[in-house]
Specification:
Blueprint (H helix, E strand, L loop, with lengths): L1 H18 L5 H4 E9 L2 E18 L4 E19 L3 E8 L11 E23 L5 E3 L4 E23 L1
Antiparallel strand pairs: 1-2, 1-4, 2-3, 3-7, 4-6, 4-7, 5-6, 5-7
Length: about 160
């Protein structure tokens, strides 16, 4: 029974990822967001991590620093070291400033680590829900962990670098 629930959750995450792809992604791509996370301990029903993020804008080429927090609710078992998350960033227009990415993002996530680990996060939100973090982020970490559930990311600006 538990195995079927797990497979159902993974299948739902895959469908959500496939359905969230933008039709004309190159038209709206505005840059890349790279976040560095603190170590995480899964508490069976969820976890929380602090993030330090850098947004690399494409045009004009600039860097903006954000601080954030990512919370996961759902199955989360294990421990991981500090890691890195990376998203392509899409927006409704190409005007990007120092606080454009601030706000809340919500979506689904899944992570697996047995030694080196990988994860996927599907998050939509930001200021006025005008920013989307690419359907599949790449998350790298080291540890022993299994996590599937709902993810809530909050970003606040820290200035221009």
């Amino acid at each position: 029974m538990r195995r079927m629930q797990f497979l159902g959750a993974v299948g739902a995450l895959a469908l959500l990822c496939a359905g969230a792809l933008p039709a004309r992604a190159d038209t709206f791509r505005v840059g890349r967001l790279v976040c560095f996370s603190t170590p995480r301990v899964g508490m069976v029903l969820g976890s929380a991590q602090s993030l330090r993020c850098v947004f690399y804008a494409r045009r004009p080429p600039r860097q903006y620093i954000y601080e954030g927090r990512i919370r996961r609710a759902g199955l989360d078992l294990g421990v991981t070291s500090a890691g890195t998350l990376s998203w392509a960033v899409f927006a409704k227009n190409s005007r990007i400033g120092s606080g454009t990415l601030r706000g809340s993002y919500v979506g689904a996530s899944g992570n697996v680590a047995f030694g080196p680990g990988l994860g996927a996060n599907v998050l939509i939100g930001g200021s006025r829900r005008s920013v989307m973090l690419q359907p599949l982020s790449v998350e790298r970490s080291i540890g022993l962990n299994l996590a599937v559930g709902v993810t809530h990311l909050t970003l606040g600006p820290r200035g221009r670098r």
